[in-house]
Amino acid sequence: MYAREGMLCPEQVIEANKGAWAFFFQERPGKDAKVFKIIKFKTMTDERDEKGELLPDELRLTKVGRFVRSTSIDELPQLINVLNTFLQIHVKLYKSYR
């Protein structure tokens, strides 16, 4: 893939993000303790020290992560999560009224 003016291609994002893809999924407890998955931006690496412990956040934060956090772009996946839940509720309501 080639980068257009002002746009990054996936390979550039991965390289700038220290080899990590831009998104990850995380399981969270929801209503009635039902577990669901949310989409999040990966802004830090999983780099560890010689003891196997995670490095401090400031050392694991990537260039992409710094930009994403400073511009609040990291909140966009939350919108996707909300819309997904909203659509699931509407589908359930539709099915219950059929």
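the 2nd protein, sequnce then structure:
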Amino acid sequence: MKVGLVRHAGERQAVFVRKLTRKVSAMAKKNKPAAPSSAASQDKPATLKDLLNPDVVNKLKAQADQMKAEAEIQREEARKQAEAARKAEQKRLDNDFEYLLNNSGTDWKKYK
């Protein structure tokens, strides 16, 4: 018999406990990344939408839509005003002889 193979009951128990703790720690390491993600999905913090009354949320959404519509109307009016200003400036320049002379073709011979 080999002396290294014979173990006492206490020694066997110690080896068993070491192997078991290694397996448990390895399993815990494998399960750690999965556990926080599932716990995080269950423990989501409450949002303001969850805390407010649905009627209040609907009123706020309606008010936000109304403000967006008003902003769109203002942008459209500003665009129309800018276009009108450009047209007025072009009309003024069309009546300015110096502007027309400077921007006309300089080849007057073809108009003889």
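The helical segments are 9-31, 34-42, 48-51, 54-94, 97-103. The two ends are 131 Å apart (CA to CA).
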